[in-house]
Specification:
β5, α5 (about 150-170) and β6 (about 175-185) form a beta-alpha-beta unit. The protein has helices at about 15-25, 40-50, 60-75, 100-125, 150-170, 200-215, 225-235, 235-245; strands spanning about 5-10, 30-35, 55, 80-85, 130-135, 175-185, 220. It is α/β, with parallel strands linked by helices. The termini are far apart. The chain is built from eight helices and seven strands; from the N terminus they run βαβαβαβαβαβαβαα. α1 (about 15-25) packs across α6 (about 200-215), α4 (about 100-125) packs parallel to α5 (about 150-170) and α7 packs across α8 (about 235-245). Helix content is about 50%, strand content about 15%. A seven-stranded parallel beta sheet has the order 3-2-1-4-5-6-7, with helices on both faces.
Length: about 240
């Protein structure tokens, strides 16, 4: 896929993997639009990247999303929709069972339902492009769940399943829209700052994403996520034990 001169919308683009993606996309000669619900973080992006369009938007709010869509459509539209925004809650299902429903609802709203809303809203726009893409950031934990982020893993598993189905439907329609899935391991972001295990850098993840987009690699597994995939395929018990140590 050619990236130069394409316009990309990155949700959750004011921090973590999304913010790292802003810099790399600009380096590829792309036009970048960022949306996020944290105004303070959005303002930092505005200050650092003068050419980036930053929109304050809570992607779980239907009205705010529609207003964002209207702004983008009026400015010429996008070629790539990167559904990157996510929330994660680390807790024990038994130790914090009273809050499990609240945590799960929050994660599903951002990590899954909002993605479907955005895809549905922007689909006609993407269909009008000569070459277009939808990108979903899932997780290695979507396949091999981790007990202390159980409901997060479930939300990403739902997104992973939806991704496969969406790709299949678009292929049947002989569509020019490519559906990419980025599968990182634990990544060094603010969301998992309290996690003491090994993490990969956001730069490593986004470099893999850019390479995958250019090579039309629809499923992009990053570093240890590749190893975990094969271990789980042949030795699922060992994979589960390894990731839940």
């Amino acid at each position: 896929m050619k990236l130069k001169n394409k316009t990309i919308l990155i949700t959750g683009g004011s921090s973590g993997i999304g913010l790292e993606a802003v810099a790399h996309c600009l380096n590829e000669g792309m036009k970048v639009i960022v949306c996020g619900r944290n105004t303070a973080k959005n303002n930092l992006v505005r200050q650092k990247y003068k050419t980036v369009t930053v929109i304050d938007c809570d992607i779980t709010d239907e009205n705010e999303v529609y207003l964002m869509y209207q702004l983008i459509a009026g400015a010429g539209g996008i070629d790539i929709l990167y559904n990157n925004a996510a929330v994660i809650n680390m807790y024990g299902l038994l130790a914090d069972n009273k809050n499990a429903v609240t945590f799960a609802a929050d994660e599903m709203a951002v990590n899954y339902t909002a993605v479907i809303r955005l895809n549905s809203l922007f689909m006609d726009m993407l269909l009008m492009r000569e070459e277009a893409a939808i990108i979903h950031t899932t997780s290695a934990a979507a396949t091999v769940p981790v007990s202390f982020i159980a409901t997060y893993c479930s939300s990403k598993a739902a997104l992973q399943s939806y991704t496969v189905s969406l790709r299949h439907e678009l292929r049947k329609a002989v569509s020019h829209i490519k559906v990419f899935e980025l599968i990182p391991p634990v990544t060094d972001t603010e969301a998992v700052k309290d996690f003491k295990g090994k993490k990969v850098s956001t730069s490593t993840v986004v470099k893999a994403l850019i390479k995958g987009l250019k090579n039309d690699t629809l499923t992009i597994r990053v570093t240890v996520a590749k190893l975990l995939y094969y271990i789980n395929r042949f030795f699922p018990g060992a994979a589960h034990k390894m990731i839940n140590q």
